[in-house]
Amino acid sequence: MTKKLPAHFNSIAVHGGLVQAGATRAASPPLERAASWSPETMAELDDLFEGTADGFYYGRDRSPTPALLERALSALEDGRFTVAYATGMAAIAGVLSIAGQGKRVLATPDLYGKTYHLIQAWLPESGAEIRFVSGQNQQAISHHLKTWQPDLMVVETLSNPLVKVCDLGWLVEQAKAAECKLMVDNTFASPYLSRPSSLGADYTVESLTKYINGHGDVMGGTVTVLDAVDYRALFQQRSTFGATLDPQAAWLTLRGLRTLGLRMERQCANAAALASYLAAHVAVQQVYYPGLESDPGHATAQKLFAKCGYGGMLAFELTEPSRQRVWQVMDKLQMALRAPTLGDITTMVSYPAQASHRALSAEQRAAVGISAGLIRVSVGIEAIEDIIADFEQALQ
């Protein structure tokens, strides 16, 4: 008998990877590292190749432990199908491959730097036409959807690195009316804060490397979809490009997933406290965090996910906006780690101009608001008193 999933987020996160067939009744998700499986008959193998039977035959296409993770993520995201990839960028490239090549693509400019570069530099080689428009400019989005009629729109729930908020409900409505597919990179929010699939987004992308795993020892990404045709296209694309998630990474991610809600609750609370502290600091010119009432996206963020918090990511601008000053502050931090990633249980800082958006020219960075004085912070689960004390001594 198939076990029914519980109704609440934390319960689904804990039990999602345990809903499985088999006689062992393991109390934790099993790790299976086989590269291939031998069906009993050639007819059964043929059905597996055709995709008309549920099972396993070759690890590049599908294997048990990643399949458990895909099932768990589908439940958490309120989607029908999930395809797990070797990295978050492989997941994004997968969507762009099936929905963007040779098509018209409308994207927000304030994307993760590698995503921006992929859309701006790689997609046009396939004959795709690209236009960028602010995710907060609803008038411009409506105009482009009606007059230009794009095939795909690409947005982030919370943008990297300025944590700008998109009104996902409105975007889904507009995209559906224009018959335009919508891809949402939900990495900064995680399914704890936002589930774009539940609103009708066609593709919800997560970087497993970040909050979902949460412990800095995994690379991976997922795409959750609502449509079986989209799922099959992504499945075939992943197999063809060999971008399949390794079973060990899937197993570690399943372990991290079980505490996602607890970790995010603490990280949201810590980020809100740190943002308030930095906003009052004389060495800080501006703080970007949607939990602050002064933030332009605060009202939208309240509507989308205020019941859970406003996320664990923030960015701030120094009053002395120079690379020399940024490096001085970051080098003085004693507990926060200097690392080009996010979503771990430890507090981490990065310099977007040097790391996430390094591939952009100075002019492109300026156009999306990334200055020489900007620091991005991924707030961890440490005691907030220690986090604030660390930034206090570094900013002196």
Notable characteristics:
396 residues; alpha/beta; Aspartate Aminotransferase, domain 2; 2 domains; seven-stranded mixed beta sheet; five-stranded mixed beta sheet; 42% helix; globular
Q: How does this structure look, described?
A:
The structure is a single chain. The protein has two domains: 9-257, Type I PLP-dependent aspartate aminotransferase-like (Major domain) (Aspartate Aminotransferase, domain 2), CATH 3.40.640; 260-395, Aspartate Aminotransferase, domain 1. The protein contains 17 helices and twelve strands. Strand 4, helix 7 and strand 5 (181-185) form a beta-alpha-beta unit. Helix 3 (64-77) packs parallel to helix 12. With 396 residues, the protein is of the alpha/beta class.
Give the mean pLDDT: 93
CATH architecture of the largest domain: 3-Layer(aba) Sandwich
- Main-sheet strand order equals 1-7-6-5-4-2-3
Proportion in β-strands? 5-15%
Cα Rg: 21 Å
Secondary-structure-based class equals: alpha/beta
Q: Give the N-terminus to C-terminus distance in angstroms.
A: 62 Å
Main sheet properties = 7 strands, mixed
CATH topology of the largest domain: Aspartate Aminotransferase, domain 2
What is the tally of beta strands? 12
> What count of helical segments does DSSP give?
17
